[in-house]
């Protein structure tokens, strides 16, 4: 079985996009507040993910761990109430997709974060994701300000209520920022990669997993710049009087394979322990289209892994399936209940 742990709903029906536009317009003119009844049919839902279904079939993956559009979370836009309403709408439509197509998609939810607002405001939604929607994880934004980093580092006790709730439900958090309102940082080309790298360094500087030994983080986009600078982080970890890096963090931290060329995947599999690598493609996401150098889609990441020499069958199993079951225990439980 091939499990893609990083997919976003980037092909929403027009009515869903229109709701968001009206919701934001209502910030200035409350008379424009839209109805939550979108009138989206099941047929429209299924049609909206035809591209993902085609890619699954053509590329040989079986199941996508699916979450709302990352850039669309936009936690810095509007008010906390805006984020609460939008989060609930986004998670509900993901739940509809997963209910209609359970063999293709399983849900991960966004959280109703807002700059300067305590993460405690996310606890009720985490409970709902776990208990009502049967989701297997969350996307946690380390920078709800949209590029200005106004909240504390992720090792700060400020975040502990969320971690306690995630541990309670055995749910990992993918560390994923949203859109950037800071013009210095392009969202997918800079802000995302910066955040991945920044949070990994925060984890080295803190001692989060002493307090939460079972908490799991997924750092996407291949871990940002971390694998390329693996020696730097190993050295910094020791210089800060911590145990060796793998011992210190890698019982709790995973990287995905959203790296869009073979040399990058080769580096990832060479320097990061295989037990910490999760197959992912981010389809249909950050980099769309076909690479003129290879003739393949940039986000067809399975092809890159297939081209890595020296990976044995056990290692390939771990990347494509085994590690996902370990990182997402609720996913493993659901699959076993389905006889898989």
Descriptive notes:
The chain has one domain (3-337): TIM Barrel (Alpha-Beta Barrel), CATH 3.20.20.140. It has 15 helices and 8 strands. It has helices spanning 14-25, 42-48, 50-59, 70-73, 80-100, 123-131, 160-169, 187-205, 208-211, 230-239, 245-249, 262-271, 301-307, 313-327, 329-337; strands at 3-9, 63-68, 105-109, 137-140, 173-175, 217-219, 253-256, 277-278. The protein has an 8-stranded parallel beta sheet. α14 (313-327) crosses α15. The radius of gyration is 19 Å and the shape is globular. It starts with a strand and ends with a helix.
Q: Helical element count?
A: 15
What structural class should be given to the helix and strand makeup? alpha/beta
Name the helicity range: 40-55%
Distance between the termini: 9 Å
Give Rg in angstroms: 19 Å
Question: What profile does the largest beta sheet have?
Answer: 8 strands, parallel
CATH topology: TIM Barrel
- C-alpha geometry: globular
* Percentage of β-strand residues: 5-15%
Low-pLDDT runs of 5+ residues are: none
**CATH hierarchy: architecture:** Alpha-Beta Barrel
Strand arrangement in the largest pleated sheet: 1-2-3-4-5-6-7-8
The total domain count is 1
Helix-strand topology string: EHHHEHHEHEHEHHEHHEHEHHH
Q: What is the count of β-strands?
A: 8
Q: Mind telling me the CATH class?
A: Alpha Beta
Mean pLDDT: 97
């Amino acid at each position: 079985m091939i499990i893609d742990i990083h997919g976003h709903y980037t092909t929403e029906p027009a009515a869903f996009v229109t709701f968001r536009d009206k919701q934001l317009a209502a910030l200035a003119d409350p008379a424009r507040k839209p109805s939550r009844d979108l009138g989206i049919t099941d047929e429209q839902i299924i049609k909206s993910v035809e591209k993902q279904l085609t890619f699954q079939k053509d590329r040989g993956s079986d199941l996508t761990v699916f979450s709302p559009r990352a850039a669309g979370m936009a936690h810095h836009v509007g008010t906390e109430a805006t984020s609460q309403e939008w989060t609930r709408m986004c998670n509900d439509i993901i739940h509809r997709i997963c209910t209609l197509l359970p063999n293709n998609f399983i849900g991960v939810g966004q959280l109703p974060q807002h700059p300067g607002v305590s993460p405690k405001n996310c606890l009720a939604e985490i409970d709902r994701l776990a208990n009502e929607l049967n989701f297997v994880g969350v996307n946690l934004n380390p920078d709800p300000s949209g590029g200005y980093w106004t909240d504390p580092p992720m090792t700060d006790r400020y975040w502990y209520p969320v971690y306690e709730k995630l541990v309670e439900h055995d749910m990992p958090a993918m560390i994923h920022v949203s859109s950037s309102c800071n013009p210095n940082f392009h969202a997918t080309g800079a802000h995302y990669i910066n955040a991945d790298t920044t949070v990994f360094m925060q984890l080295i500087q803190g001692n989060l997993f002493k307090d939460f030994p079972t908490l799991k983080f997924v750092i996407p986009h291949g871990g940002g710049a971390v694998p390329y600078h693996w020696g730097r982080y190993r050295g910094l970890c020791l210089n800060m009087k911590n145990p060796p890096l793998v011992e210190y963090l890698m019982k709790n931290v995973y990287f995905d394979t959203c790296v869009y060329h073979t040399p990058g995947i080769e580096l990832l599999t060479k320097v990061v322990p295989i037990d910490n690598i999760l197959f992912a493609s981010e389809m249909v996401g950050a980099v769309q289209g076909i690479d003129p150098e290879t003739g393949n889609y940039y986000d067809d990441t399975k092809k890159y892994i297939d081209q890595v020499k020296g990976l044995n069958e056990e290692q390939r199993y771990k990347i494509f399936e085994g590690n996902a079951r370990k990182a997402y225990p609720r996913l493993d439980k659901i699959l076993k209940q389905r006889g898989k």
